[in-house]
Amino acid sequence: MFVRLLAAMAEGALALLERPPLITSLATQGDVIEIHSYITGVQQSIASWNGENLHVFMVTSLALLLAVPMKTLSERLTLAVNALALIVAVMLAICIVQLENAMEMYASTSLGMTLHSDRAKALFDWANRGLIMVGMLLLPAFLFLRSYVSFWSEDETPARSRARRPSSSAAPGSPSSSR
Length: 179
Fold this sequence. Notes:
The protein is mainly alpha-helical. It is 63% helix and 10% strand. A 3-stranded antiparallel sheet has the order 1-2-3, covered by helices on one side.
């Protein structure tokens, strides 16, 4: 379902980015996205890309976000919903770059042609590595720190303030209270 949603979003984004469009449509079968193109003269399935690892990026980000204890379930849901937009944006960018790389690889190996300039290929390669780093490390860390900071920056509840306050049950003048 998640890969199908990303494929639909990527199809729209690619239609806006490519002029003329090299990738004309995308179809999903489970986690596999099929790339359709007119590059050979007829609309046909050219290549495919497996988006199975995108689930790992999403689950890791959400798991670290929700690992911080919250007061209520609504706080957890609010954090998760707010983070989903950022997660989907990163996953969409990864998907688009991966699809472009799969298309370029097919054209060079099967058709003996190049679709992008050397500069564009270098940019796609850099973007691919950078986005995977963002999806694997930076995004989960950012979401975890964001939830951690929001947890400690909220107004203190009585239970939380009691947990942080040292116990004052020692009698005046006793060794533990005379520090």
